[in-house]
Design a protein that fits this description.
Layout (H helix, E strand, L loop, with lengths): L17 E6 L5 H22 L8 H33 L2 E6 L8 H6 L1
Antiparallel strand pairs: 1-2
């Protein structure tokens, strides 16, 4: 009894390997973190310069204090948004079947160009 393994001879047929994969659109975390931080900086600027405050504190010192708090909060909220979108993408994932392609099935141009 023989098995359908590919021994590498030219006359033998290649049996494609089939695998089931999951395909989904996952968010990139870094843009969410950066956007959350930038929004936090914008909120800090509004709090420091847009609202009336105590005259005994300099507006730039208030901005620096709120920049740290609001920036960190924005990064955390951006990360949570990315996690939520990632979990939603897992639920909406599609299944697909893929097959391996033998090296001899490549275009002749690819082999000559190298």
């Amino acid at each position: 009894m023989s098995t359908p393994e590919n021994s590498g001879t030219a006359g033998e047929q290649h049996v494609p390997e089939r695998r089931q994969v999951s395909v989904r659109r996952a968010p990139k975390y870094v843009p969410f973190l950066v956007l959350g931080g930038l929004l936090g900086f914008g909120v800090a600027a509004f709090l420091a310069y847009g609202l009336p405050g105590d005259e005994s504190y300099d507006a730039s010192a208030v901005f620096g204090f709120f920049m740290i708090l609001c920036g960190a909060g924005g990064v955390i909220l951006g990360g949570l948004a990315a996690l939520i979108l990632d979990r939603l993408s897992v639920r909406r994932a599609k299944r697909a079947v893929v097959e391996s392609v033998p090296d001899s099935a490549l275009d002749p141009e690819d082999e000559q160009g190298a």
